[in-house]
Design brief:
The complex is a heterodimer.
Chain A: H1 2-13, H2 16-35, H3 39-68, H4 70-77, H5 83-113, H6 117-143, H7 147-175, H8 182-190, H9 193-205, H10 212-222, H11 225-252
Helix pairs in contact in A: 1-5, 2-3, 2-5, 3-5, 3-6, 3-7, 3-9, 5-6, 5-11, 6-7, 6-9, 6-11
Chain B: E1 5-14, E2 17-27, E3 31-36, H1 43-51, E4 58-63, E5 66-67, E6 82-85, H2 97-108, H3 114-122, H4 138-150, E7 156-160, H5 168-183, E8 187-191, H6 195-198, E9 204-209, E10 212-218, H7 219-226, H8 231-241
Parallel strand pairs in B: 3-8, 3-9, 6-7, 7-8
Antiparallel strand pairs in B: 1-2, 1-4, 4-5, 9-10
Helix pairs in contact in B: 7-8
Classes of the chains: A mainly alpha, B alpha/beta.
Amino acid sequence: MLKVFKYTLIDLLRNRFVLGYALLLLAIGQGLFLLEEDPMKAILSLVQVIMALVPLIALVFTVVYMYDTQEFTQLLAVQPMARRSILLGQLLAMCTAMLLAQAFGLGLPLIAHAPGSASLMLSLSGSALSVVFVVLGVLIATRLREKARGVGMALVAWLLFVLVHDALLLALLFTLSDYPIEPWIVPLAGLNPIDLARIIVMLEIDLAAMMGYSGAVYKNFFGSNMGMLIAALIMLLWTLIPGWGAIRAFQRKDL
Amino acid sequence: MKNGIAIDGLGKRYGRQWVLRDVDCAFKPGEVIMLIGPNASGKTTLIKCLLGLVRPAQGRITIGDTTITSAAAPDPSYRARIGYMPQISQFPGALTIRQLLEMMADIRGIAPGALDEELIEELGLRDQLDKRLGALSGGTRQKVSAILAFRSQPDVLVMDEPTAGLDPVTASRVLARAGRVRDAGGIVLITSHLMEEVESLADRVAYLQDGHLHFLMPVREMLEVTGAQRLAVALPRLLAQAARPAPVV
């Protein structure tokens, strides 16, 4: 696994798309800090951009890379090495490449303009999202044979997480506003890793009030150490379950 | 290699479509098999089944002492004896040839040695070792693919259209190398549409059509039966003569 990881990472770190992604994040981060006088406002704007952009890039890049390296993956599968090791090596390399690009593009402006716990939380949440969506991308690419369908499914998944889930959640909260639904708010947030990441960062910036009554429930739950631990566990599950599914599918797949 | 390759009742289907059906044959150590057939006849699927890339729907493949189609996934170490030269050679574009050779040596647990140097020299890749694979022509990538296939001195060598994209001199060198694998007791399986290129090397010809193995016959016998001098002439005559499939030899 480490051999596949090492050489896939070397390939990815020279990949123009990864370099472009790092530069794009750097331009957005630096631009927002230069435009806003208050660093907290810049971070707030950055949260909205990162929560949409990072999952999109991670998903689409992973799916495209997996399909583009299909012939080489076949060649690896003919070597004396378990398929699980091949996929894990590729998966780890893609996660590492995305995280390094993010550390460079997002980390540098955050350290330069707003060092502190809010920046740290934004970086950690962004990193968690990168990993979750790389794993989801690998799952899509291992389950669907055609590249066009894979990319289409990646875009649908992104739309579901970024727009549809929020819209459904709002509709639900509005419709059931007369009922005691607070016990359901937190589990519903856990169903969407992007929402979860956004809530954690908002709580750190102390902008839970912006989220109204739900914000109070989130603050009550995720504001404690136990709440944070549970949030981290949910993110871990969002990585492990699709990752397990991808490995299982890859082991049975006709290459 | 002691026991060769045995294929019993092999079948593969995608959905309801059978692409291979009831394939029974055996390949002996020290022979070159030329696998031919029209497009979509099942050649690539048969090769992929042998390589463990595709799971058969039925039947069994045994390579040496290892049954690779058993319910439990076989220990992948048997693949150390297999060399594979695919029809399309795609590699990570940002790696250099040198890095790719190092990677594959790492994976196979072999140290780059004299054979590597010999192959690099023979295929004329010495000056290109530090070029990125993404910048190489299709023919040069095929040469890299040939080095990867030959360098571990395989017992089973599978070559899918090995001469496609290669210049005539390199093509003949690659085929000569395949002959050496046979001479060392290995099994060489070649698919090619260019029969005249491979016929001097092949010991037997396997003809697939619509997923069925129509015949597996020694080249000499094919020529004798049809009275032809060349395989390209013998094959259509044999197919025309055959009112029913000839027995598998």
